[in-house]
Design goal:
With 157 residues, this protein is mostly helical. The protein contains 5 helices and no strands. The chain starts with 6 loop residues before the first helix and ends with a helix.
Length: 157
């Protein structure tokens, strides 16, 4: 028994081949887009690392970091083999930036606290009052520290 050739079967096979070709082309385009997304995200991570390394300008770079974070989220998928490592690198770069930002924000307060202790030590000595006045005249932020130390002494009395 030999089955008869069906003309619809030949048409079906040609249509299925067309579908397979289009599907393969679409998969290749998606893979290329994922690779482009990977390249863009790696460039953003590199920029974050560069910004974090510049400790003097971390506060000024804060708006750009927010833009980088938004752009990173907007970029589409990356190849699955790279996704986990990429995410770890991104989180590390963001964490490093925020650590630098925290250090820069805490640094002036630490300096102010040490000045306050120094000024209150000067004010407690007899000759220190004049030295504290000279110091408060030369450092505007020290005026606040002198008056703060004076207010604290008044409250304790």
């Amino acid at each position: 028994f030999i089955p008869a050739l069906d003309p619809a079967e030949e048409e079906f096979k040609s249509l299925m081949n067309t579908v397979r070709e289009r599907k393969a082309a679409q998969a290749a385009a998606e893979e290329e887009e994922r690779n482009n997304n990977l390249t863009r995200k790696l460039a953003l991570i590199e920029e974050l690392n560069t910004i974090s390394a510049d400790t003097d300008n971390v506060n000024r770079a804060f708006p750009r970091v927010k833009e980088i974070q938004a752009e990173f989220k907007e970029i589409g998928e990356v190849p699955a083999t790279e996704a986990t490592e990429l995410w770890k690198n991104y989180q590390g770069a963001v964490e490093q930036f925020y650590d630098q930002l925290k250090v820069n924000k805490d640094l002036p307060w630490a300096a102010l606290r040490s000045r306050t202790v120094f000024i209150s030590d000067l004010n407690s000595s007899s000759a220190g009052s004049r030295a504290g006045m000279k110091l408060s005249a030369s450092f505007p932020s020290a005026r606040w520290a002198v008056s703060s130390a004076s207010c604290s002494a008044l409250r304790m009395a």
